[in-house]
Amino acid sequence: MGRVRGRVAIVTGAARGMGASHARVLAAEGARVVLTDVDAAGEGVAARIGDGALFVRHDVRNADDWARVVERAEGAFGSVDILVNNAGVADHEPIESLSEERFRREWEVNALGVFLGMKAVVGPMARAGGGSIVNVCSISSMVGEAGAVGYTASKFAAYGMTRVAAKEFGPKGIRVNSVHPGPIDTPLLHDAPGSADAVLMMKEMSPLGRIGAPEEVSAVVLFLASDDARFVTGSGYVVDGGLLA
Ligand SMILES: NC(=O)c1ccc[n+]([C@@H]2O[C@H](COP(=O)([O-])OP(=O)(O)OC[C@H]3O[C@@H](n4cnc5c(N)ncnc54)[C@H](O)[C@@H]3O)[C@@H](O)[C@H]2O)c1
């Protein structure tokens, strides 16, 4: 308990799935949390967490939205110490049929959103004396996934930006790491076409024989956000039940 007590965290894509779980876990460990999402369902998630949480409607593709989120965090809680860039979208189309518009959408949410987020918090975190940024990437940041060109490209980009930011922000006391989930039990996984067969196949391929729970990724996010990881930066943590092995 209390591993991030006194810290202020922003978690994007927190209306459901893993983002909601990261927000709950950080709050349970003492952080005050700003939950953001394009989906207003985040309001209810924040209300259930209680006094130390608030929701801001936020499109991670929009720099003005980012400025508002940081302003709300500093106004309500006094600083920004932790950013979890979790919002993400996934399409499932081969290169030949994926439209330029859908590719741009994945690119803008999963890669541009991460860039804008890091850019928005670096000043406030440096003023607060340091901080921790966790970029939620994927095992698709490490291997090519057929039928997921926009997702794979944007997640590779987010992994690369993590390493650049770790080098640029280290002297300011800001650590930047990534987590790389495998298949995790969220709407994003289950909404994919043919997901039932894909999940079955991934379970069979996985050394642990199952898909993961959101809280199992949140545990690694919490570690990276906390002082337990004070000498960890520029690193990518795979949380996939051994699938990549
Ligand atoms: N579920 C998995 O198997 C899996 C595996 C690897 C990586 N991931 C990554 O984990 C993260 C969370 O995924 P999830 O499985 O919880 O998905 P999810 O679809 O359940 O949740 C994603 C959230 O992001 C929000 N979002 C989408 N576009 C947004 C935007 N432009 N601005 C702000 N919010 C936006 C959605 O409204 C949603 O609430 C994503 O980055 C995803 O790519 C998921």
From TrEMBL:
SMART domains named among the record's database cross-references: PKS_KR
UniProt keyword annotations, A-Z: NAD, Oxidoreductase
Pfam families membership: adh_short_C2 (PF13561)
Domain Ketoreductase, residue spans: 7-172
Domain of life: Bacteria
GO MF terms held by the record: oxidoreductase activity
The name this protein goes by in its record: 3alpha(Or 20beta)-hydroxysteroid dehydrogenase
